[in-house]
Structure formats: C-alpha cells, structure tokens
Amino acid sequence: MGSKPHAHDPSTEAGAPASVYGRIVLKLSGEALMGAGEYGIDPERVTAIARQVRNATDLGVEVAIVVGAGNIFRGVSGTAAGMDRSTADYMGMIATVLNALAIQDALEKVGLTTRVQSAIAMQEVAEPYIRRRAMRHLEKQRVVIFAGGTGNPFFTTDTTAALRALEIGAQCILMAKNNVDGVLDADPRLIPDAKLIPQLTHMEAIERGLRVMDTTALTLCMDNRLPIFVFNMADESNIGRILSGEHIGTRVITK
C-alpha cells in the first residue's frame, strides 16, 4: 500500500467541497488559546479550535499544528526581567507542551486521532519529533501537534511553524490570530482605524516591519515560496473558507 496523495479527491466525500490544499500547518499562538482571559487556557476556545480542525480533516486535509506559549510564558519577557535568554526560551518551549496536550485532549474529544511530537524529549507524554514518523501519521489522517519549538533557544514558534511546514511538505501555513482579521497596516492599539492588507509578499512584510511572523520565519517561507494565510480564529468558518480557496484575511505570497 502506497501513501495517499496530498491532493484531496472530492469523490471521497459526497457533497463535501474540495480543498485546494492537501497538507497544512496551523500555527496557533498561545494567545489564541486564552479566549477573553489574560492568561492560561480557555476550554471553550480550545474546543472551538478543535471543531475547526475537525472540519478541515473532513475535507480530507492533513493537518499539523504548531503551538506557541505566550499564554503561559514568554521567553523574551523572562529575559527582560533579567533571566538568561537560553533558560527563558527553554521554559517557553516546555510551556508549549502544556498547550499541545490541551489541544490534543480537545481534538480527541471531537473524534480525531492525534499525536504530540516534542522537540524536547518528554517520552511520558509525547513522541520525539521524527520527520518521517510525523509524515506517516499525517498520511494516516492523524493530526500531529508539534511542541517544544525547534528544541533550540533563540528561535520562535513562528520559525518552528515555517521549519516544520517545509520539512513535512505542507502547502501553506495558516496563522490563526486572536480577534484580528489579518495583517493590518498599523498597530490597532495605537491607530484604531488601521486597515487590513488583503495581500502582500514576504519581502514587503519584512521591509515594512509588519507583524506577520518574525524575520527568520518569513525568510524561510520566502526562500521556499511557502504561502501564509493570516486570519481571525474567532470566526469558525474561516479555516474551511481558506481551504476551499476563498480569500480570507491576509495572504502572504512570493510573486
């Protein structure tokens, strides 16, 4: 038996709209898990995310997830408080495992089979990150949650998302934002009438200093022509609409 192709066959889902992407990486910030809270994990928000992932898998899409930890611990804020940067980053990486387990629990409650793979060894709760094993899980329609960042300090979970997406052959990255519709031309906290940018290139995002991803992650995506979709996670229809080819939020591409 060979591995299944990435492209979705519409005939496998009677009446279901076809997805234009076969394998994706969904990047969830830690803040996307907070809901209306100031920190921690909101069970209702995580359940809503699980439903959206389930809708994506119902289209035949293979889904991998990279999760941040800003809702629990930020390495940069730890450094600002006088902590060694490497130590702070390792603490942040460990915090991503907590979020990954919460997401795993929510996904399995909506009927999905999952695997958590950590770049930092935690064999009691997660598999080690092994690229070929991750790809095999995806081919078997399991949702793979990548935790532990890259396993190295000084790299963000945005860079992890770019790196993992390229390693597993994902066709795009979906960047889920917390109550922000996409990439704006200014900080809405400072300029209330900041406008949505529907499309831009990776290089434009870098040159304009727009907060899509960090520069390392954007450069990786640009060099490998990997598109990024930035969208509002609050609307549960958005992932399905993006996968069906609709233009939602901001699309970051290489021309």
End-to-end Cα distance: 38 Å
Question: Which stretches of 5+ consecutive residues score pLDDT under 50?
Answer: 1-15
State the major sheet.
9 strands, mixed
Q: What is the H-and-E element order?
A: EHEHHEEHEHEEHHEHE
Whole-number count of domains: 1
**What's the CATH topology label?**
Carbamate kinase
What radius of gyration results from the CA coordinates?
A: 17 Å
Shape: globular
Helix content: 25-40%
In round numbers, the mean pLDDT is: 89
Continuous helix count:
8
Supply the helix-strand structural class: alpha/beta
CATH superfamily: Acetylglutamate kinase-like
Give the tally of β-strands.
9
**What is the class in the CATH system?**
Alpha Beta
CATH second-level architecture: 3-Layer(aba) Sandwich
Largest beta sheet: what is the strand line-up? 4-3-5-2-1-6-8-9-7
Strand content: 15-25%
In brief:
With 255 residues, this protein is α/β, with parallel strands linked by helices. Helix content is 35%, strand content 16%. The protein has a single domain, classed as Acetylglutamate kinase-like (Carbamate kinase, 3-Layer(aba) Sandwich).
Task: Present the secondary structure layout.
Elements: E1 23-28, H1 43-58, E2 62-67, H2 75-80, H3 85-109, E3 114-118, E4 127-128, H4 131-139, E5 143-147, H5 157-168, E6 172-177, E7 199-201, H6 202-208, H7 215-223, E8 228-232, H8 238-243, E9 250-253
Parallel strand pairs: 1-2, 1-6, 2-5, 3-4, 3-5, 6-8, 7-9
Antiparallel strand pairs: 8-9
